[in-house]
Amino acid sequence: MTTRPKTLLAAVLAVAAILAPNLDLNAQTDPLASWNDGSAKKAIIEFVQVTTDRASPKFVAPEARIATFDQDGTLWVEQPVYTQVVYCLERVPAVVKAKPELRNVEPFRTVMSGDREAMAKLSMKDLEKILAATLSGMSVEQFATEVKDWLATARHSRFKRPYTDLVYQPMLEVMQYLRANGYKTYIVTGGGQDFVRVYSEQVYGVPPEHVVGTVGGTRWGYDKTGRPFLTKEPHLLLNDDNAGKPQGIHLMIGRRPNAAFGNSRGDREMLEYTGAGEGARLMMLVLHDDATREYAYGPAQGLPSTKIGVFPQTLYDEARKNGWIVISIKNDWKRIFPFE
Amino acid sequence: MTTRPKTLLAAVLAVAAILAPNLDLNAQTDPLASWNDGSAKKAIIEFVQVTTDRASPKFVAPEARIATFDQDGTLWVEQPVYTQVVYCLERVPAVVKAKPELRNVEPFRTVMSGDREAMAKLSMKDLEKILAATLSGMSVEQFATEVKDWLATARHSRFKRPYTDLVYQPMLEVMQYLRANGYKTYIVTGGGQDFVRVYSEQVYGVPPEHVVGTVGGTRWGYDKTGRPFLTKEPHLLLNDDNAGKPQGIHLMIGRRPNAAFGNSRGDREMLEYTGAGEGARLMMLVLHDDATREYAYGPAQGLPSTKIGVFPQTLYDEARKNGWIVISIKNDWKRIFPFE
Fold this sequence. Notes:
Two copies of one chain form a homodimer.
Chain A: H1 4-19, H2 39-52, E1 66-69, H3 83-98, H4 108-113, H5 116-120, H6 124-135, H7 140-153, H8 169-180, E2 184-192, H9 193-197, H10 200-204, E3 211-222, E4 228-238, H11 244-252, E5 259-262, H12 268-275, E6 282-287, H13 313-322, E7 325-328, H14 329-332
Parallel strand pairs in A: 1-2, 1-5, 2-3, 5-6, 6-7
Antiparallel strand pairs in A: 3-4
Helix pairs in contact in A: 3-6, 11-12
């Protein structure tokens, strides 16, 4: 009985070949159609081939295939300011409406004034107060609703489109290509874990349990009907940036990634951690060098300076030294956004 | 072209039916063979049926199917003392060998004396010192090696077998049955996340990324060759017990489970959190009422008192009130261990 299905399968395939002689069961389209031919595209394809071919000495068992992706600047636009920071600033009116006593308290007064110049001068401490007021104090379900509602109407200042439209088509293709080859694709972001989980499945095909991000604690409690709920608290459990990225990967995944993608100083340790494993490794950094189609910032390679998503020359040099691949948006990406 | 494969499939199935008229493609064996027929077994099967049948109003999309399992006392034996505590105590000689100055310092001196009576009197503060000394200070890889080596030789005091043999066959069947029906099975344990991850895949078929447990921070650093590594730190990020269980589920999974399994006071909030969701829900508690084949402890239902895995009468009453199902080892389990 145990060999019967095999025999049956052989018969079935023979019949299929007779019935459909022109059906190409191996019909292939380019999984990385938005990439120009070049060393970056070639590296991705070679990595997948050597790690999924059972005959390859670099074969990776399907259950161990892990790829991690930074989000801001790697999967979607981070300029001129991180989307989540825009969210927090735009949530301030609702917070002030619920707590009118905040209207004349800084930094809420400045944000309510709408004075962009004054807002640009807010200190990190001011920003932390705004983040705490807009990202904690509500139930986890309420927060998800607030983010979802905002994403439905908010528009990017330059592209005049929903932020979730501003994802990089070539990176979506890499994620899909990796998943089609048995890789689990995780987002490992300095952004808020609960924030990104709201749209990660719909936008990237990444389920909430595959989102690792900066995350705070929660408080357990019961409502008047006795129903339990979790309230988002301001205290930080994990600052998922720099060394926090490999720490978050160990905490949430417990395996070392085989491939990691980033675009800034904050991704350095994640790429180092990924590269320190055995076998085939793929470490890539997106360099934003296309002001016409997206943005140009570094300051690596003489690109303009930025406060958001800094890619310093030292990181560029480390990439060269370690065999990490720098993706040039200008040269490597045929198309940037899905809507193009 | 798009309908061609369907036509082909129909032809192939017709051919298959002719070629193999006696091949029962739906041959079924009982997925819960170690369970006696009764309300517990029935509830598990009904839950799976209503949540996986697309025609059912309680259908759950495959990607949202989550089941969480406590470990100690739910998936494996926790008496007479938690396995991980045995591990920590038995690691003390190696720790003292590496740091001889600890030999005459309490509580290490008492543990080194081997005086079981004195060891039983160690305070919680003493125990914390032992846990810190044996569960932190080493790289995450070194820790995994230490646990693996210990598990290979350690034996349970009563059953004289490796601890990883002392898993409950009926619960393995539930996990396999749920996974075969598209559920992701997570372990949500008060035990150490890094500890359980060492053997979870081999013993339960649960990969490391599906283990949520009590977990401490890590420190990022580089060795002399420049290779980065993470060192286990003593400070706690999550105490995954009681309210910490739903907090850990939100942190690590980000979805509410559809089913949850526990056996003690520490699982109460996880079951409440699971039960507070919509649609079909399955909450189950293992009651250890079989001193002959395993152990008997409560104190619910007049069972003997215990310090390990307390199942109070209040929890039993809450289970009754909420429709949670209490599994009686004595009556519901035909067979307890895989080796029987």
